Amino acid sequence: MKFLFFLFLISFIICNKKLILVQVITRHGDRTPLKTLPNQKNEWNCDLNFYHLSNPESKTIFQKVYIPNRQQFNGNCLTGQLTSKGFQQHFLLGQKLRKKYFNELNFIPEKYDPKLIYLRTTDKQRTRNSVYGNLLGLFPIDINEEKIEVLDVNTVDLDYEYMHVNKILCPKLKRLLLDLENSSFWKERKEYKFLHEEVVKIFNDSSLLDTSLRKVRDNIYCTLSHGKPIPEGISYSLAAELVEETRWQIETLFVNKLISKLSVGLLIKDILEAMQNKIVEKIEYKYMFYSGHDTTLAPLLSNFNVFDGSKVYYSSFIIFELYSDDSNHFFVRFIYNDEVYLIPGCKSTFCEFETFIEIAKKVIPINFTEECV
Ligand SMILES: *[C@@H]1O[C@H](CO)[C@@H](O)[C@H](O)[C@H]1NC(C)=O
Ligand SMILES: *[C@@H]1O[C@H](CO)[C@@H](O)[C@H](O)[C@H]1NC(C)=O
Ligand SMILES: *[C@@H]1O[C@H](CO)[C@@H](O)[C@H](O)[C@H]1NC(C)=O
């Protein structure tokens, strides 16, 4: 169930509850494709992440320069790299969050404070750079500041990451996905068969099956997002069908409760533990930011039973707000892209913390290793 956000800004005041912790989980912004397609001439140019300081005191800046004609696409971008457009999307989201949590609620400090702000990301260029864009909107640069500030952005090796579907960390996920994608339910659908046949025909390449088709769909989506020409032979209606197929597949994966649980159950554990630690004043953080993927947000929504299968767009965000009242009761609010959701099982959008714990515990693996065998 959805409610308009502004209604709840009013109730924030009426209900006399005090905000004590905000946790924001986002999808990265617009990015380049993961793969180029045969005969595709599009050029992708990126002006992000090209400069590196070896350390803050250093006067030397390194610039990354791609060797021409050795990349997936023409131009100077990495595959799946956050584009300037994607950076801007996160910058705007950061500004929006600043407006709410600083200007309106005076909750976060005016300037970045490492004691109060916690940052975490998957170790991908697009999610790391989304953090940078977002933080620039959340805490605008003070041009009078002389010294360079170093902000910690926490991450782990991709093989150990549980902020999204990790088939290496959880072998069972790999099997569940294979079984689903190999099922007749998946493969015998007329849309799936039609798209395969069309794409193989258009590119005259039978290797563009299964996982490769995913990269074709991904390419088409990124290309359309930039208004660049789509490959010859692919009509706009076929392109739309390819994009819809991606949405369908993400929906179908994450309505599966076991897949959703094993994908981000441990992240939910972290989110819950942060709340519990805040309540007993074990942590000082007021604002925790997690930079992830559509495969972070979709299973999160599914685990709280509010996933309607819609596409999780670039720089979408989920917010868990933790409140306390005068009599030491605690409440959680769940927000997705500006809308407050009633989590099924909660009596109100200010979900009583005990109820929230019960709901969260159902999707937190008790023994992840064992459940992932
Ligand atoms: C896919 O399903 C077919 C038929 O049910 C089976 O023979 C094949 O081994 C399966 N492939 C994988 C990778 O599971
Ligand atoms: C399609 O590919 C096959 C095998 O690579 C090749 O023999 C054939 O000439 C190609 N057809 C067209 C229309 O390009
Ligand atoms: C989790 O399960 C594994 C495998 O069954 C076992 O070795 C391990 O001790 C269990 N861990 C806990 C904390 O129970």
From TrEMBL:
The keyword Secreted does not apply. Keywords: Hydrolase, Signal. Pfam families: His_Phos_2. CDD domains: HP_HAP_like. Residues 1-15 form the signal peptide. GO terms for molecular function: phosphatase activity. It comes from the Eukaryota. InterPro entries: Acid_Pase_AS, His_Pase_clade-2, His_PPase_superfam, Histidine_acid_phosphatase. Belongs to the histidine acid phosphatase family. PANTHER family: 2-PHOSPHOXYLOSE PHOSPHATASE 1, ACID PHOSPHATASE-RELATED. This is Lysophosphatidic acid phosphatase type 6. It comes from Anaeramoeba ignava (Anaerobic marine amoeba).
